[in-house]
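User: structure tokens for this one?
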Amino acid sequence: QVQLVESGGGLVQAGGSLRLSCVASERTFSTYAMAWFRQAPGKEREFVAAISRIGGSTPYADSVKGRFTISRDNAKNTLYLHMNILKPEDTAVYYCAAKPVWYSSSWTSSEPKEYNYWGQGTQVTVSS
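Assistant:
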């Protein structure tokens, strides 16, 4: 069972940048499709971005397209989310998620229920 640990969250002013990281315990990290989700207080968990196991497919939520970039380094078992031009509405707890997909090099999903493993989350707060 893969364990995921997020880091990199914090307090930033609007217009600023942050880079989130998610380190996986599995050496078979490259067999997992990965994604970032976020959840603001009182709201449902929402999709942010996903990446296929070899990085060829990277869908984004419309709200972050052009500002956020998802990437992965399979040699380091690490998923990243580069967040630029942050807005107060980006404030949330950010979670990384994983699904084993050894059978597909292009699989991604924006549905939380599709993912088997979750990190504990990292808080991102954007002040206006």
